[in-house]
Amino acid sequence: MNLFTKQTATLALAAGMGFAAVSSAWSAESLQDVMKRRGLSQQDLLAASKTYVPTGKRDEFVAFSSGGQSGQVIVYGIPSMRILKYIGVFTPEPWQGYGFDEESKEVLKGGRIDGKDITWGDTHHPALSETNGKYDGQFLFINDKANPRLAVIDLRDFETKQIVVNPIFKSEHGGAFVTPNTDYVIEASQYATPFANKKFVPLERFNEEYRGGVTYWKFDRKEGKIDVKKSFTLELPPYSQDLSDAGKLASDGWSFTNSFCTERYVGGIEKGRPPYEAGCSAKDTDYMHVINWKKAAELVAAGKAKKVNGMDVIPMDVSIKEGILFLIPEPKSPHGVDVTPDGKFITVAGKLDTHVSVYSFEKIMAAIKAGKFEGKDPYGIPVISMQDTLHKQVQLGLGPLHTQYDSKKCVAYTSLYVDSQVAKWDYCEGKVLDKISIHYNIGHLMTMEGDTVDPKGHYLVALNKLAIDRFNPVGPLHPQNHQLIDISNDKMQLLYDMPIPLGEPHYVVAIDAKMLKPGIRYKVGTNSRTDKPSAGAVRAGEEHTDKKAGKVEVFGTLIRSHITPETIEATVGDEITIHLTNLERAEDETHGFTVSTYNVHASAEPGKTVTVKFKADKEGVYPYYCTEFCSALHLEMQGYLLVKPKGYKEVKVAAAKADYNKADYDKQVKKIADTQAVIDSVVGFITSHNYKDFPDVVALVEDATDQLGRMKEAKAKHEESAKKQDWQNATLWAEQVWQYQVKAADIGLRAKTYLEEHGAKKVGK
Ligand code: K7E
Ligand code: CUA
């Protein structure tokens, strides 16, 4: 069946024949039948009805999950838990051309350390940008714990735009957390090291020369970039700082960072010393760091910081003298530190304690104001007593880790790692409300917008470290398990298990889907990684190739279904640069591009300009092609890179003799007329309906008109060739006219189906 008859058949079906007859051949299966056949309970059905999102419908929330060791971000919908996208961040991601085209290589270059590429990342904590403490849907940040880096993702196109390296840390964990207006992105170190780069300091000098810290990365919202020059770090003792959180509302201007090894233990099991795990949990308490970041920023502006490896660092003695740094004891080896939505309380969960401790910001401020301290730490930092600042301690269970908040007042949820449970509790009254078992060993948990000033409630996701028996076995390395829990009622209900097969997603954030408004296309000729016009962009008809000594630079275009140019000629040893602009305006019309065996790949979404660059270091013939199935003639979207030996002399090859005659041409002309009739009938259907009420259809119609518009030039050419009785070219140009028709018909049929499925109405003539 050739394409044309396929189209016709589709048209006939779409016109309403056939479907009813087919479905009546099957006996209907009732809900009860299905329940019996699949062994489902009423409870299962209830859970299913809370997560199932019917085809064509969308999720209420969009979640951005850390991709753990994959160095990526995973985007999925809630409540369906359908994966929507992987975003390449610290790691090359071939589909998006990330790390395989020049534009994205520039972004990854920002993540080089000591001049070397680091092609993996250990992502932990994604953070959405905020305005007045609420998610604004503009940017996403995520950290790399292993290599102290932070990335900025723009939510207009879900692409990574920037990676910055912390010049004084060697690892970091307490990030990314944003201040309420995203002035700063907080990132705390984890394992203490000397700040000086590439300097050996013996472990015996740990207390004196190893340091922790918190970096406040300045975010320039207008540029959508971290402003490294305006960022600064607070020097901290080598206490193995862990998570952080920014104060909000009542506590705006302050931030909180805890620590898990104030023992400053340096291990040495191989020398007969007890291991880290014993040495780091010997004392009953560690310290929460309380930092006035607003005042810290003023101190930096006033020149009170000193430069270390190019970064402004506020030394500890300055922080102490200026009164911007305090410590409060917190139960043994804590993990999460989470500020309540009103900013009045800070919940700390001690992994080795069965309690969560709720600190009162008001009490902390009162103690600081009164100068009431229980002492100083070995570095002279004032220590506020736990008793003076505690609001409540609540016994929840074994291994409490992280806390998130509900839309209901005073309601919090804390993960219990050892118990494999989520505890729902009241932080105002200090009592447990409900518990639910998860599967298994929960790390973080997340409620909808649950770390903002305005949590949305509804759902909770438990991020479980172990899946054990939940899924079909796939070998010793199991997927992780994100479990969806309904929290809209008094009792929590477990709804769904979602396997995450791409690393350990430590944390995830979810935003009301309505807040996200990503684009559909770029302005034609955009370098998406810089958001500026690409120097390699050209418009249709301006395609050209520049040749200079040792260099070939192609300025080409992509559109259904051809790559311009269709041949690239080079001499072995040439440096080849290929810029390609996707001229499409249609939604979801992405073209990909690769050249055989040269390890380049690019994804060109509508309007984007991409660049691949490589040295043609091998003589030979290398096909290049579009890697996205973009159109019926996608396979024909191809070309050849011809790499000739040095000094190659062109040989005359006899011109191919004509393959087509007048009869072939006439056949083509008839085919064009028949197809036009099909197009006219589709157009008739669309225009006789209220299609203008459907923006998606209006866009399709524009695209189809665009394809038909391109036809004119090819039509003129086949008619001219026919006049000269050049049947070869006349036949082929006529074929090209038909190609445009097919594309237009394809789009038209999509529009027609859409109208039928969305109940479009007939309009009067
Ligand atoms: Cu895995 Cu926040 Cu890095 Cu806890 S972290 S579990
Ligand atoms: Cu363009 Cu396939």
From TrEMBL:
Its main location: periplasm. Residues 1-27 form the signal peptide. The keyword 4Fe-4S does not apply. One of its GO terms (cellular component) is periplasmic space. GO terms for molecular function: copper ion binding; cytochrome-c oxidase activity. It is found in: Periplasm. The keyword Protein transport does not apply. Keywords: Copper, Metal-binding, Periplasm, Signal. PROSITE patterns: COX2_CUA. Residues 547-655 form the Cytochrome oxidase subunit II copper A binding domain. This is Nitrous-oxide reductase.
